[in-house]
């Protein structure tokens, strides 16, 4: 029994060490210009995705939904987030957590707004390029 427990512990330890550690600098991540007012950079790991958005005033992330829980932290500027009939003003130093599958949109209220988002699980639509909710904006 002790041998069996030791082997299980050894296998679990090996699995943990097999994961890859990633380091990054937000400003150096590859950036995708979404439109003339909005840029997005991203990086994903096994369990989540970080999105780094830079907005000009009036930039819009149109109403969309996804199966990911979303944590948004505004580090500079401010945004208006619309979820259903409710509007939230989120300013620098504030954040909002959006549950999965809840339609929502963002509008930048100031130039040079920075929004750092975390999504769990990873944003498969960003990874495979099928996020098409920006196409009409």
TrEMBL record:
Keywords attached to this entry: Signal
Name listed for the protein in its UniProt record: Cupin domain-containing protein
Sequence intervals crossing the membrane: none
UniProt signal peptide: 1-18
Domain Cupin type-2, first and last residues per copy: 52-112
UniProt keyword Signal, yes or no: yes
Pfam families per record: Cupin_2 (PF07883)
């Amino acid at each position: 029994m002790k041998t069996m427990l030791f082997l299980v512990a050894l296998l679990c330890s090996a699995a943990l060490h097999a994961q890859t550690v990633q380091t990054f600098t937000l400003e150096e991540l590859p950036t995708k210009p979404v439109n003339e007012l909005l840029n997005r950079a991203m990086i994903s790991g096994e369990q989540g995705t970080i999105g780094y958005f830079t907005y000009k005033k009036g930039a819009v992330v149109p109403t969309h939904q996804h199966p990911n829980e979303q944590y948004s932290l505004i580090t500079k500027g401010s945004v208006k987030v619309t979820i259903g009939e409710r509007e939230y003003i989120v300013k620098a130093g504030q954040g909002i957590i959006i549950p999965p599958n809840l339609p929502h949109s963002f509008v930048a209220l100031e130039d040079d707004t920075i929004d750092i988002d975390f999504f769990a699980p990873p944003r498969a639509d960003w990874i495979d390029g099928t996020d098409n909710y920006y196409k009409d904006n």
